[in-house]
């Protein structure tokens, strides 16, 4: 698992190391790591042109020291000082000694010919939207040809939430120090961070247990155990699905197919799309009746495409009255938003899987702090909330939140959410704790999307078809060609 940390946690972890000295040692580690990544990205230093945007804090110090290292290897480095009187003195001296040039924002910045731009305007100390002069420099940098590399985090991105107020540095790479900041992997911060490179500056022993994490392929593989000799179709977990309608069987077909393809022990379907499901998936056990007619299951998935009429409301209430894990999606979310006590009163686990508009039906917009928003709704309802998005969040009333790291924008197509529900339902039925089932499902779903997108634009059914291969690759190990 990769820990995702806040600015305060990183600062607290740095404190004892700073106190133990020697002075500047941490910054040297950071700058060396930064210069090393830049060299790798440039291929060579000699003859390249680097412009470092330098604010008045230690983030600017990192950029100056790294710039000095690149200059010492033959790069033509220009440091653009936003606040010349306050630029990190030792870093500035080192850059000058190494042959680097220094300019103000209105001087010869070299941005129009740079091979690489280092963004050292603000890091952990940045607050609110970038000030006008910094924002203008970022616009000029983005218009130039240089590879955009953020120091610690893109200036203008909130380190904890990923919120961007106004403009932020649109990095292609972010070299971050000591720990991955949560703001780099969620919301707008994720869009601005590009590829994140973590430089070890020795904080591992002093960082607290993270309040947010990202699962790796290996973490997920460990939660996807294949069947053993001792298994039978019941022992692998029976999932029950209530979705779709006679007129719109699509959601039911996708959801049932995804559950079958994730953990094909047994899938039961109850609802008015029975004919469509039966035709698509003869392996499922299908009833036109109510959930109570379906036979025994270990977890329910309720909602995709089922409608919001009184009949649907009754079915949702019936399922929530069981003592089984229940996943609520789509129309079921609309219904429980009107009667949240149906969720609050449960003792068995409940998972809600809203996108932003469905989330808002519970009374508050998601806003810029997506992890915080998911946590708040989870605490309010006493349930697991999977908030969909480019980086899907899973939060429970307690324990760490999960920020998903897989997926592709190609997933923004109708029906992919129905597939996610089916995958998650199968993992719930298999007995995974609710938050882990949801987070594992989001990871698998994203990997299936990446695999499907290799063949061009995808439709939701492609995910179902790719699930067996996705699961096989994950189980074989992360070196099996499903890179980030
Ligand atoms: N501590 C350590 O040992 C290590 C620290 N490390 C590095 O230090 C970084 C933290 O440095 P930091 O604390 O000096 O703050 P930093 O990110 O440079 O920002 C402060 C500057 O930004 C300015 N500013 C603020 N908001 C702004 C805005 N909206 N728009 C424009 N400007 C704005 C603010 O201006 P002021 O308010 O003072 O006028 C001030 O000048 C950290 O991210 C990592 O890179 C590493 O070397 C590892 C070891
Ligand atoms: N830009 C994007 N990048 C990555 N994943 C996305 C993006 N947009 C949507 N997704 C994913 O696609 C799925 C869409 O689900 P949902 O909105 O419920 O669709 P539907 O209701 O049509 O099934 C979610 O898993 C979401 O995380
Ligand atoms: K920065």
Features:
484 residues, alpha/beta, Rossmann fold, UDP-N-acetylmuramoyl-L-alanine:D-glutamate ligase, 2 domains, seven-stranded parallel β-sheet, 17 helices, 19 strands, elongated, disordered C terminus, binds ligand NPW, binds adenosine-5'-diphosphate, binds potassium ion
Tally of domains: 2
What is the name of the CATH class of the largest domain? Alpha Beta
Bound molecules: ligand NPW, adenosine-5'-diphosphate, potassium ion
Global Rg:
25 Å
**What fraction, in percent, of the residue positions are helical?**
25-40%
Major sheet strand order = 8-1-10-19-18-17-16-15-14-11-12-13
- The counted number of beta strands is 19
What name does CATH use for the topology of the largest domain? UDP-N-acetylmuramoyl-L-alanine:D-glutamate ligase
Strand-pairing-aware structural class:
alpha/beta
Low-confidence stretches: 479-484
Please tally the helical runs, counting DSSP H or I stretches of 4 or more residues: 17
Structure commentary:
It is a single chain. The chain has 484 residues and is an alpha/beta fold. It folds into two domains: 2-210, Rossmann fold (3-Layer(aba) Sandwich); 217-476, UDP-N-acetylmuramoyl-L-alanine:D-glutamate ligase (3-Layer(aba) Sandwich). It is built from 17 helices and 19 strands. The chain has helices at residues 7-20, 25-42, 58-72, 89-97, 132-143, 187-193, 217-222, 250-262, 274-280, 310-320, 331-338, 341-344, 356-360, 370-381, 416-429, 434-453, 460-476, and strands spanning 2-5, 49-54, 76-81, 101-103, 116-120, 147-151, 173-177, 180-181, 195-199, 212-214, 238-242, 266-270, 285-287, 299-302, 326-328, 350-352, 384-387, 393-395, 401-403. The chain has a twelve-stranded mixed beta sheet, sandwiched between helices. Strand 11, helix 8 and strand 12 form a beta-alpha-beta unit. The chain binds ligand NPW, adenosine-5'-diphosphate (ADP) and potassium ion. Adenosine-5'-diphosphate binds next to helix 15. Potassium ion binds at residues 59, 119-123, 150-155.
